[in-house]
Design a protein that fits this description.
Strands 1-2-3 form a three-stranded antiparallel β-sheet, with no helix packed on it. The protein is α+β, with helices and mostly antiparallel strands. 12% of the residues are buried. A hairpin with a 4-residue loop joins strand 1 and strand 2. 26% of the residues lie in helices and 19% in strands. The chain has three helices and three strands, in the order αααβββ. The chain starts with a helix and ends in a 19-residue tail after the last strand.
Length: 95
Amino acid sequence: MNKYQEALKIMCNGCSEARKGGCDGFNDACHSYAPLKELVDKATPIKPIKIIKRKLFKDGIDMTLAECPECNAVLVKPQSICLRCYQKIEWKKEE
């Protein structure tokens, strides 16, 4: 759990829904802290989709391209944040 997730959980502990046992800080139906939840989601790294390895240019430079799973923007490894939606990206070590 990252620090943003921990902060959201602490804030949600004071929420009336959490006290009733209806929310653990990550319930999608709860809208009390929706803006913070969105930031937590953006700061939590996710894996890119449709990873493609290509040789570019005449000198054969290898480049790994992928799509952002949130907005489908093109990502270039080792890009760690999508420049369109600001989602944090986590590349697999073997890629």
